[in-house]
Amino acid sequence: xxPVVAIDGPAGSGKGTLxxxxxSHFNFVYLDxxxxxxxxxFLSIPLIKIRTMGIKELLDTASTLTNEQLRSAGNSAxxxxxxxxxxIRDVMTHLQQNFIDLYKKQGTVLxxxxxxxxxxxxxxxxxxxxADLKERARRRFIDLKDKNTTFDEIFNNIKLRDIQDKSRKIxxxxxxxxxxxxxxxxxxxxxxxxxxxxxxxxxxxxxEFRSFV
Length: 213
Ligand code: C5P
Known about the structure:
single chain, alpha/beta, five-stranded parallel β-sheet
């Protein structure tokens, strides 16, 4: 088992916000794995180049890009397209596993689509965060600075990404009995966090990583 909180779920479910709050509360190190895929998509980094990069170099590269660049509707769609490629997923999975090893003494929180299924199936705690599509689109619409985008565009973009992420052959977004499912549709961030925090605590207390929480 690894001292990892694996958080998966669809776009706009609140998993990023919750992952950050969990990491900060338990003093774990956080990795937004969507950011890695978005960086590769935005810069069209060739596979041969990604294979030579370490996780720190990729994170440094990501930090040179703005939120608007990374999170635009165009780059979101591009990201979902490149995320279907098995060779890309393979090298990205290794980079994420390196991150987990790098911070194994402190513990890590990773959020994405295949964290608990592929990247770290033996994570100490697996959470699947979800919410209604309409509510997720509403949250993204509020978050997005680019007000040239309409609610309908965001709704359709997320709907399409949901379909692509769930139906791809490799590492599709899915949830099984090893996850704790949390539906945040009718919950505030604080309410959702409280539930996540208790689940993480319970899972770690019942494991060899009791001293981490
Ligand atoms: O989490 P975020 O919305 O930033 O992810 C952007 C896209 O990156 C997702 O729609 C998905 O296609 C891809 N992704 C993935 N596996 C991950 C993280 C993100 O396929 N672990």
